[in-house]
Amino acid sequence: MKNYELISNPKLDEETISTQPIFEGNIITLQVDTVRMPDGNTATREVIKHPGAVAVLALNQNKMLVVEQYRQPMHRTEVEIPAGKLDKGEDPLAAAHRELQEETGLHSGDMRHLKSFYTSPGFADEIIHMYVTENAQPGDMSLDEDEFLEVSELTLEEAYQYIADGRIADAKTIMAVYAWHLYTLTGQWH
């Protein structure tokens, strides 16, 4: 995995002058930063800090494993690939194995990293590390006490139909479907 924090352009970088904490929750914190812009003027930036997350594209006999669960911010259920937040100091690969097992009961020995990406870099530092596995073995689910979901499998065609119908609407799952489609065309994970 690349270290995205090291990428810089001195002509565009902003210097943080001060940080004012606003809210600290179980998953996110909100802060307002005062920054010095490249032209010397100052501005404020509202920033959500997030510990990061993992997502797993799990394929079994040419079908993608998905979970459907209610998402309060959208007030609806979403069909998504298994995913979850990183615990403090947790290795992303270990978290991917943990989340796959917790949400689906599956265990995988051959998980590989596909890509890491920021979800909303204009106001949040959340990064998702996406993994793929093609040979997961069944086991027992161990959902969190506040987690209710249904597990199912979709063909590539069904996944595209779910996207068209709006049942799949989150970026990580759409990205996983596109990566899977590219894999079917090239035989390579890009």
From TrEMBL:
SUPFAM superfamilies the record matches: Nudix
Names of the cofactor(s): Mg(2+)
Claim: Hydrolase is one of the keywords in the record: yes
GO biological process, one term: nucleoside phosphate metabolic process
Coiled coil: none
Every Nudix hydrolase domain range: 49-183
Single annotated GO MF: hydrolase activity
Keyword Hydrolase: yes
InterPro entries with a match to the protein in the record: NUDIX_hydrolase-like_dom_sf, NUDIX_hydrolase_CS, NUDIX_hydrolase_dom
Keywords: Hydrolase
Gene3D superfamilies: Nucleoside Triphosphate Pyrophosphohydrolase
A GO cellular-component term linked to this record: cytosol
PANTHER family reported in the protein's UniProt record: NUDIX HYDROLASE DOMAIN-CONTAINING PROTEIN, UDP/ADP-SUGAR PYROPHOSPHATASE
Entry protein name: NUDIX domain-containing protein
